Amino acid sequence: MTNTTPDLTAVVLVGTLSPSPAPSSSELLARQVLSALSAHGVTGTVIRLVDHDIRPGVQADMGDGDAWPAIRAQILAAHILVVATPIWMGQPSSVTKRALERLDAELSEKDDQGRLLTYGKVAAVAVVGNEDGAHHVSAELFQALDDVGFTIPAGAVTYWVGRAMEGVDYQDLDQTPESVASTTATLAAHTAHLARLLAREPYPPS
């Protein structure tokens, strides 16, 4: 499909445990995903979650000082959500899990036709680590994102995992492996395609 209208937007949540301005392999891969999406007419924003005071809880707003409402507003205004996380102990990072917990509030938010506000939004995932677990982590994220109303396209994950029990990070590589680059390109093409279709033809009320 060559027609790039309507214009699409994306929000990328980065679940690194390292506050800015520390380098982050998760953010590096996240920005590569965003760059790949730009080839399909998508503009976007990267949010490093650990830089923000996201309160624990499952409500849309956990009170004074909670940074989640502003992040949520950006997510709801976008067509695409990308969640990028490192693997720690075989799991998504704790800040990534907190964002998923906060998204649980979307189950009680509906439009005037009874649809979740997240219906019609597309989600994709990026995972990095130097231990096994990319498939497990992406499966956890996909299920959670589907549960709260996001649509998952085919091939919606890109990842890199180094050799287990060694210390090489994704950001330490001299260049992006071709397998990662091609997988990221596929993710971007499919995600933008599906997001554009849903922007034109929203889900019907049920």
TrEMBL record:
Protein name: NAD(P)H-dependent oxidoreductase
The species this protein was found in: Cellulomonas fengjieae
Organismal lineage: Bacteria, Bacillati, Actinomycetota, Actinomycetes, Micrococcales
Domain NADPH-dependent FMN reductase-like: 11-157
SUPFAM superfamilies assigned: Flavoproteins
Domain of life: Bacteria
